[in-house]
Every structure is written in structure tokens, then in C-alpha cells.
Design a protein that fits this description.
Strand order of the largest sheet: 3-4-2-5-6-1-7
Largest sheet: 7 strands, parallel
Shape: globular
CATH superfamily of the largest domain: P-loop containing nucleotide triphosphate hydrolases
Bound molecules: adenosine monophosphate
Number of strands: 13
Distance between the termini: 24 Å
Order of helices and strands: HHEHEHEHEHEHHEHEEHEHEHEHEHEHHH
Number of helices: 17
């Protein structure tokens, strides 16, 4: 694989990359950067954590930094579209880092804040505009942004943009792009609708695929832990108390679920915050910053918040609830094991979630090893009925009779006892011991 030296980037860019201690381009960078430097369009199938931001930022900075044109008010030369404010901010930070010796200006444009500062920054002129679709359109319609001189257009996380309902906005923006431009298109997955959009945007693109459709990242050690629904919270607390869990992201199915998990963790002395769609932009950003700065150990998120999270050093991803969409599993676990680091992804699975687990395994093409070698229980027809159990019974202590929980699923208790809390009254322990979760700093095992 080529080194960054061999990519022949302009000196200021090479210096910034060296200061970041990047030595070898990641696969997406090695395949994308040379073609993008030649002016080719790119169709990149890659998720966050692969180094895709530098894969598009470096060629743009190389082009604009080499040109040394003055920034023209309201007429950016490059536009990067991202689905969320969090991702836009991260991309902006990357342009700042890589471009620090180039004297280029970039402006961020996203919703949820007053537009005044953004408008003033646009008026001063920016070489690169990083934007979310809604606010971009809004400012375009008000005449603050003119895309007619655009040289490079980047669409990042196209699939997520579609999921979030941005397609109509996207189409309106695309109409305003000059036809003579370079386009770089990135998406974690390539369902037919995305391919159709890519075809409309790209001309004779170089296709780069670093995460073959739906394969999960190899340096992430994945495990399943069969649990009873009522024991999820105590199990989570035990796992998070283990020494090697430095920074964890916990995924829940619902926003309400995320809030409940956070409240209980905080009560038990674990620093946690929630990040989901019902939180204000500011609250989400604050939670992310606190997590990045290690002020909080645990971020509890729903899927919508998941893919914008770009934080190194996430040692564990815990699926408190399995996602209903198997694709979301791949995105979730991609929050750990970033840029070649190792990570643990642990998924809780109840009887009611067995179907979701099987769908995920089908998608990723392999079985996920089970902690302690527990055997999955037979799902009895009436066991699944526990999902519609009256609330009082769901909440109340140990399941009575046939609860549908794993502890009563008719298997030998021996393997469970090592892993699952029993319903006996608990003795106080100074440090709760979690189930044996593999350590993030041990060599990751290939799970496929
Ligand atoms: P991204 O996929 O763009 O979100 O990047 C994920 C992480 O990888 C970021 O924290 C980058 O700083 C880091 N990164 C990107 N390229 C490289 C590289 N060539 N070597 C080491 N780390 C990198």
C-alpha cells in the first residue's frame, strides 16, 4: 500500500497529515485519493471509521490549497453535504485539522441555531462549505449561497440522508449544482435507491468499496449475551463497571428507553448521557463533547444518533436492545474499532429478540459467538407473549412461572449461573463483577 508521501499531496497538507500521525492511508484513502486528485468522480461504499473523511477532504484541500484563489463571498468552491449537525461539525473539524497550513476558509451551515453567524461567515467568503441539507436550502433560497461556481461536491452518508427523509431537499440542491463539477459520493450501504441517486450525480465514477455490502468490521470482537428482559439493566451496570470498559456506547430501541437507561445508570453512580432525536441540538452536542473529553463514560443512543458519532477510543458498544433493522447493527458496532483500533461489541438478546439476532447473523454472514457458550433457548409459542405482558408484571422482580426469560427456558442452569444474576437476594459487593467480556486491548479474534 502507498504511503502518504507517495500520494504526492501538496507540502502543507503532507505536514498536517504527518502531525496527525497518519502514516499509511486507510484502504478507502488509498483507493480514493489518487483518482480524486485526477479529477475523477468517486462512488465510495464505506462507513464512518474507515477514514472516509480524509478520503474526500484531502483531495479537496489539495486542489484548493494548490490553486490559492481568494474565497469569494457566498460562492464556495467545494460543498460537503452531511445528514446531521454532529457529522457536519466533525467534518468541519477535519478540514480545520488537515488544512491548517493552507490558509483556506471553511464555513459550517446547519439548523437548530440562529443563522446570523453563518450568514456573516458566508459573506466573508469560504472555500469549503460543510452543510446539512435543510439549512443549506434555506440559505440558498434567501440568496446567501450561490453554488454556480462549485468545483467539488461531496455527498456524505447518502443512505442515512435518505433514511432521514432528505431526498426532496437533496434533489432541489442537486438542481442548482453546475454540471461541470467533480462529485464524490459516499454511503455505508448501496440499496437500489442510492445507486439510482449516484447514477444521477456521478459521471464515469471510480467505485471503491471498503465495506462489502453489510459485512461487519473485522477488528471488532462481537458477542451475544442471552438475557432476561428484566435483568438487562443490572447486567449493563455490571458490564460497565468492569475495568476495561473505558468508553462505551449503549444502544436502545427507543428514545424513552435511552432516557430510562441513563437515569438508572446515573443513579448507580455511572456517568452517562443520552443522545437521540428528542434531545435539543445543544444537548446532543454537549453530550458528545463530554463523552469525547471523557467527562462521561457512557453514551446511550438510538439509531438515528448512531452514525454521526466519530469518537476514537470507544472500547465497547453494547446493544441493550437489538435493532429491528439488521443493517443498523453494522452501523452501531462500527462506533468501536475505529481506524484500526480494536473494540468489543456485545449484544443483549432476549427470547423476543431471537428473530432479530438471526436476521443480523444472516446479514453479516456469520454467527455471533455467545458469551460463555450459552445455548439459545427454544422459543415456546407462549413465551413470546411476554412482550405483551401487563406492565405490573414486566416491572415486578423475578419472573413467575413461565416468563419467557432465559433463566426459565428449561436449560441447564450451570452455564447461565456464571453469567446471569440469579433472583436470590443480592449480597453487597464492593465492586460488581461483570460477565467475562473480552478485553478491548487483547488481540481481536476473527469472528467470521
Ligand atoms: P472517518 O472514517 O473519516 O470518520 O475516520 C475515522 C478516524 O480515523 C478519525 O478519527 C481519523 O482521525 C482517523 N484516521 C483517518 N485516516 C487515518 C489514517 N490514515 N491513519 C490513522 N488514522 C486515520
Amino acid at each position: 500500500m502507498k504511503s502518504f508521501e507517495e500520494l504526492e499531496l501538496i507540502p502543507g497538507l503532507r505536514r498536517a497529515v504527518a502531525e496527525e500521525k497518519y502514516e499509511i492511508p486507510t484502504p478507502i484513502q488509498a483507493q480514493t485519493i489518487p483518482a480524486a486528485l485526477e479529477g475523477r468522480d468517486i462512488l465510495g461504499c464505506a462507513q464512518t471509521g474507515t477514514g472516509k473523511t480524509a478520503a474526500f477532504a484531502l483531495p479537496i484541500l489539495d486542489l484548493l490549497g494548490g490553486d490559492k484563489q481568494k474565497a469569494v463571498p457566498n460562492q464556495p468552491q467545494a460543498l460537503v453535504l452531511a445528514p446531521t449537525r454532529e457529522l457536519a461539525i466533525q467534518i468541519g473539524a477535519s478540514f480545520e485539522t488537515y488544512g491548517k497550513y493552507l490558509g483556506l476558509r471553511h464555513v459550517l451551515v446547519y439548523g437548530g441555531v440562529k443563522q446570523g453567524n453563518q450568514v456573516r461567515a458566508l459573506n466573508r467568503g469560504a472555500h469549503v462549505l460543510v452543510a446539512t441539507p435543510g439549512r443549506l436550502l434555506d440559505l440558498m433560497n434567501q440568496g446567501y449561497i450561490d453554488l454556480s461556481h462549485l468545483e467539488v461536491f461531496v455527498l456524505d452518508e447518502a443512505d442515512r440522508m435518505m433514511d432521514m427523509g432528505f431526498l426532496p431537499d437533496l434533489k432541489r440542491i442537486i438542481q442548482k449544482l453546475p454540471s461541470d463539477r467533480q462529485s464524490l459520493f459516499f454511503s455505508a450501504t448501496l440499496p437500489p435507491k442510492i445507486v439510482e441517486l449516484a447514477q444521477r450525480l456521478l459521471t464515469n465514477p471510480v467505485s471503491v468499496n471498503v465495506t462489502p455490502k453489510s459485512s461487519s468490521v473485522k477488528r471488532i470482537e462481537q458477542r451475544v449475551l442471552y438475557v432476561d428482559r428484566n435483568t438487562k439493566q443490572s447486567m449493563l451496570r455490571q458490564i460497565l463497571s468492569a475495568d476495561d470498559v473505558e468508553r462505551a456506547i449503549v444502544f436502545t430501541k427507543t428514545k424513552r428507553g435511552a432516557n430510562v437507561v441513563v437515569t438508572k445508570l446515573v443513579k448507580s453512580g455511572i456517568n452517562a448521557a443520552a443522545i437521540h432525536g428528542n434531545k435539543s441540538q445543544n444537548a446532543r452536542q454537549r453530550a458528545l463533547e463530554d463523552f469525547r473529553e471523557k467527562k462521561i463514560q457512557v453514551l446511550v443512543a438510538t439509531d438515528v444518533a448512531a452514525r454521526g458519532i466519530d469518537i476514537d477510543g470507544v472500547t465497547h458498544v453494547i446493544n441493550y436492545d437489538l435493532p429491528i433493522e439488521p443493517e443498523a447493527y453494522v452501523h452501531r458496532i462500527g462506533r468501536t474499532g475505529r481506524a484500526g483500533a480494536e473494540g468489543i461489541a456485545l449484544s443483549f438478546c432476549t427470547t423476543a429478540e431471537l428473530g432479530d439476532l438471526r436476521a443480523i447473523e444472516k446479514l453479516i454472514g456469520h454467527k455471533i459467538p455467545v458469551v460463555g457458550g450459552q445455548a439459545p433457548p427454544e422459543v415456546q409459542p407462549h413465551e413470546t407473549e411476554t412482550t405483551s405482558e401487563p406492565r405490573s408484571r414486566q416491572r415486578g422482580g423475578p419472573p413467575r412461572g413461565r416468563s419467557g426469560g432465559f433463566a426459565s427456558a428449561g436449560r441447564s442452569r450451570s452455564s447461565q449461573e456464571a453469567l446471569l444474576p440469579t433472583n436470590k437476594p443480592k449480597r453487597r459487593r464492593s465492586r460488581p463483577k461483570g460477565p467475562k467480556v473480552p478485553r478491548a486491548n487483547q488481540p481481536a479474534k476473527q469472528t467470521s
